[in-house]
Amino acid sequence: AANGCIFSDILAGREGSRLHLAISERIIRMISSIIILLLLCCSLIDGSSWASVASDSSAAFIITPTKAKTATISSSSSVALAALENGDAATQTNSQPSFTLKQRNPYDIHVYYSGSNQRDKALLLRSKMKQQFPWMRFYEPKDVPIGPHPLPMWEADFASYDNRVFWGEVCDFIKEEHEDLSVLVHPHSFDGDYADHTENAFWAGDVLELRIQGWKR
Fold first, then answer.
1. Could you tell me the sign of the dihedral formed by the alpha carbons of 175, 178, 183, 187, in that order?
2. Which 3 state secondary structure label does DSSP give 161?
3. Which of 45, 49, 55, 56 is deepest in the core (most CB within 10 A)?
4. In degrees rounded to 5, what are phi and psi of residue 80?
5. How many other C-beta atoms are found inside a 10 Å radius of the C-beta of residue 198?
6. What pLDDT digit, counting tens, does each position of 109-134 carry?
7. pTM greater than 0.70 (yes/no)
8. 101 secondary structure, DSSP code
9. What is the residue-wise DSSP string for 5-44?
């Protein structure tokens, strides 16, 4: 009988040990889960382990705990808007302009030149743009300054309100191809002519001082 009691005590001790072990494992799992949740919360607040933007501005890499996914960003988001304020060029980056266009030809383009060398470059750019943007309207070069324009130039426009969606593509092309030429792309918006030739304008190359001092602001 004594041996039976001892054996029962041993079995009870083993069951107790197993129970304590199971409880300990559950506690460890709970603590681990809490630590993981705290780390995830810290990561979300910091943001550095969850999202980063590629330096070439062509893709954004969103990092999750399991794998990385790539999201394509439109190239037009890299186009810079330039404004002429108090004689200085102010630059900001937007995917789309912030002004409201009139329902007409939405944009004019002016490519300026000085001297025969720049004139040749301007006409070469004109030929490239004719080929690249066949929907655009082109006008004959003006070899003397006219109106608000301080230098000779040639002009083109977007022809139709529907073509406003090509603004980013056109500006990207001009940025790549203008060389040492100054190029102005300005809208026809409800902000008025002065604003459209200053804070609403896009410039590639040197920003020229237009003769618009008498225009209504």
1. negative
2. helix
3. 49
4. -100, 135
5. 20
6. 999 999 999 999 999 999 999 999 99
7. no
8. B
9. HHHHHHHHHHHHHHHHHHHHHHHHHHHHHHHHHHHHHHHH
